[in-house]
C-alpha cells in the first residue's frame, strides 16, 4: 500500500516536472524576455517579482534582490519602444509587432531582420537603463568592474564606468550564457552583443586634471554614458546592414579557410538574421511619408497623394525656464503625403 | 686636507651604496604598483530631479535627496508638466552612491573631493544654445554623519555661481544632445563628514538669467576623490622617509660642526634642501583623520612648491660653485647669486599668487573658480605664463652654467698632466664630484619625464600575466616620490665632509711638497680643512 503510494507520488512528480518544462516552452529565456518586453505595450502587472513581464526563476531572484530593478526595466522597455517607433516612423516596417497587419505573422515567429534588430535594441536599452540606474543611485547593487584591487575595502564606493556593470548585468539578466548553442541561439546572442556594444561605442572619455596647483600631474579620466537616441541612430544603421545567414545543418562540417575566418570576423560585428522579411509593400497604403524622396521608397512606386493640411506645431519657444520647453502653438499650412 | 665622502669612498663601497639605493627605488615603485590602488576614484552621479513646492527658495534647512527616509518625489523632465514651475526644480546629488548593496560613506582617508558638472542639453531647432552662454547655478552643499537621522542634513556651504557653457552639436536632430564640455564645480580640501548632498537650482531672478541654455535633460556630477588605499600607502611611505631624512640631516650637520671652519654655502644649501624635503615628507595628513582641515590641498601645493624651489636653487648654486674660475675674494654667499635665483623666485611667487587666488579663495567658497570670469582667466593665465617663462629662463641659464663648467673642466683637463700628482688628484676629485651629481640629476630628471610621458600615453594598468597587474599611475607617483627622496638622501650622505685625511694611502713626498707649497704661499683665511671644491679652485686660479 505504502510502496504503491510512494510510487505514484514519484510518477506524479516526474510528470509534473516535465509538464512545467513544457509550459515554460522550448524558447530560451533570452528570446522570451525580449519578446515579452517589446510586445507588451500596456502597463499591466505580471506575476513574479519583476512585474513588468513574467520573469523566469533566475530573473525573479534578481528582481527580488534589487528592488529598484522593476522600475528600471519599465524605463528600458518604454525607452526602447519609443525610440523604435520614432526612428522607424517613415520606414516600411514601422516598428509594428506583426507584418502587414496580419495577426498571424508575428515578427517573433522566426528570426527576421526585425527580430534581430529588436533583440539588439532591447539589450541596448536595458544596458543603458541599468548604467543610468547605477549612476543615479536607484540601483544599489552595482559593482565596479575592471578594477583588480580589492574593491570593497579600497575603493569605498565608486568607479566612473557603470557601463561595464550594465553590460554584465544585462547578459546575466537575459541569461545569455544559458541561451544554448544551436544556430538560432548563436545568432540571437550575437545580436544582443551588438546591441550592448552600440551603447559602449557611445561612451565618451572625459578627463580632469587635479594635480599640483591644478596641473595635469594627476589626471583622472572617466567614461561618460552617451544619450540613448544616438545609440539608436547607430542601431538603425546596423539594421540596414544586417546580414542573412542560411540555416545550416551542424552535421556538415566544412574546413575553415583563412578567407572564411576573416569573413566570420567581419560578420561578428553585424546583426544576423535567418528569414527574409515578407514584402511589406502591401501594408503601406495610407501611410504618411516625410517627403517626396521618402515617399518613393515607402509607397513602393505606387505614387502618393499630396494634400494640404494645417498643422499646429511648437514655435517661438521662449526660454524662460531651465528644464521644460514652453512654446507657442503656431498653425501652419504644410504639404503632406499619403501613399496610394 | 679633507674632501667630501664621495671622493674618498672606494669604488666597492660606492657600488654597494648605489645598489642599496637602487633597491630602495625599485621597492618604492613596486609598492605603488602592486600594493596601492589607483590614486583617485571617480563616481558619476546622475541628478535626481526633485520638486520644491515651498514658496521661499532660500531656505537652507530644506534639503532634497533621493535615498533614505523622507526622500523627494522625483519628476520626469521628459514630459511637459504644467504644475511644475521652473523655480521648483531641484537637482539632487547624494554622495557617495551605494555599491554592491551597501550604503557607503566617505572615509577621512579619502582626503578630498572634487566635483565636475556635466549638463545634457537636448537640441531643439527653436531654441539653439548660443555658444559661450552663461549658466547661473545656485549650488548648496550639505553634510550628514553616520549617527544622524536620514533627514538631518546640515548646510556646509552655499553659493550662486556663474559658469560658461561650451556646447556644440554635430548632427542637428531634435532631442539629440549637445556636446558640452564639463564644468568644474567645487573642490573640497577635506572630506571630514560621512555623507554629502548637493542641491542645484537654476534661478531666474532676472529675465536674462539662464535664458539661453537650451533644454536641460539631465545633469551629472562627477566626483573625484583620492583613494583611501592610496592615501594609506602614500602616508606609510612618508612616515618611513620622514625620520630617515631627519636622521641623515642631523648626522650631516654634526659632521659639519665637527670641522673647525664655518659651513660653506653649498653645505648650507644642502641643509636647506634637506629641511625642505622634511617639510614635504612630514605626514601632516594624519591630522586630517581627527580634525577638519580644509587647507590641506593648499598646504600640499605650498609644500611641493617650496621643495621644488629649493631643489632648483640648489642646482644653480651647485653649478655656480663648481665654476673653476672664481676670484679668490671672500666666501661665496647667497647674495652673489641673486641674479641667478631671481628666475626661480619669480616663478615661485607667480605660482603662489595663482594658487592663493584659486585654492586660497576656495577655502572660503569651495564653488569658487578663477577661470570663470574673463578677468580671472586673464589673471590666472598671466601668472601661469609668467611661471612658465621663469622656468624656461631658469633652464636656459642652468644649461649655460653647466656648459661653462664643462668647458672649464676640459680646459683644466688639458693642463692636468703637467700638474704634480697631488693637485691632479684634487682636480680629478672635483671633476668627479661634479660629474657624479650631473649624472645622478640627469638620470632622475629623465626618469621622471619618461615616467610622466608613459603615464600619459599608456593605459593605467599594466598586465604582465593573469596574476600580476601593475597600477602604473600609483607606481609612477610613489616611484618619483621615492626617487627624489633617495636622490637627496644620497646627496646628503655623499657630499658630507669626510673625516679621512687626504690622501689616505698616498703619503708620498709629493703630498708634503704640495702642503708645504700651499703653506708657503699662504692662505691665511683658509683653514686646512676646507673641503669645498671652490677653495681648491681658487688656489688653482692663483697658481
TrEMBL record, chain A:
Protein's GO biological process: canonical Wnt signaling pathway; cell fate commitment; neuron differentiation
Transmembrane domains' residue ranges: none
Record's function text: Ligand for members of the frizzled family of seven transmembrane receptors.
Gene: LOC113394414
Gene Ontology CC, one term: extracellular space
Gene3D superfamilies linked: 3.30.2460.20
Name of the protein: Protein Wnt
UniProt keyword Secreted present: yes
Pfam families named among the record's database cross-references: wnt
UniProt keyword annotations, A-Z: Developmental protein, Disulfide bond, Extracellular matrix, Secreted, Signal, Wnt signaling pathway
Automatic annotation (TrEMBL), chain B:
Occurrences of domain Wntless GOLD (ranges): 48-226
Record keywords: Cell projection, Developmental protein, Endosome, Golgi apparatus, Membrane, Postsynaptic cell membrane, Segmentation polarity protein, Synapse, Transmembrane, Transmembrane helix, Wnt signaling pathway
Membrane topology of the entry: Multi-pass membrane protein
Domain Wntless-like transmembrane as annotated: residue spans: 227-499
Classification via InterPro entries: WLS-like_TM (IPR047843), WLS_GOLD (IPR053936), Wntless (IPR009551)
Subcellular location: Endoplasmic reticulum membrane; Endosome membrane; Golgi apparatus membrane; Postsynaptic cell membrane
Transmembrane segments: 14-36, 233-253, 265-286, 306-325, 337-354, 379-403, 436-455, 475-496
GO terms classed as biological process: intracellular protein transport; segment polarity determination; Wnt protein secretion; Wnt signaling pathway
MF annotations from Gene Ontology: Wnt-protein binding
GO cellular component: endoplasmic reticulum membrane; endosome membrane; Golgi membrane; postsynaptic membrane; presynaptic membrane
Keyword check for Membrane: yes
Record has Membrane as a keyword: yes
Major site of localization recorded for this protein: endoplasmic reticulum
Family label: Belongs to the wntless family.
Function according to Swiss-Prot or TrEMBL: A segment polarity gene required for wingless (wg)-dependent patterning processes, acting in both wg-sending cells and wg-target cells. In non-neuronal cells wls directs wg secretion. The wls traffic loop encompasses the Golgi, the cell surface, an endocytic compartment and a retrograde route leading back to the Golgi, and involves clathrin-mediated endocytosis and the retromer complex (a conserved protein complex consisting of Vps35 and Vps26). In neuronal cells (the larval motorneuron NMJ), the wg signal moves across the synapse via the release of wls-containing exosome-like vesicles.
Summary of subunit composition and partner proteins: Interacts with wg; in the Golgi. Interacts with Vps35, a component of the retromer complex; wls stability is regulated by Vps35.
Protein name per Swiss-Prot or TrEMBL: Protein wntless
Lineage of producing organism: Eukaryota, Metazoa, Ecdysozoa, Arthropoda, Hexapoda
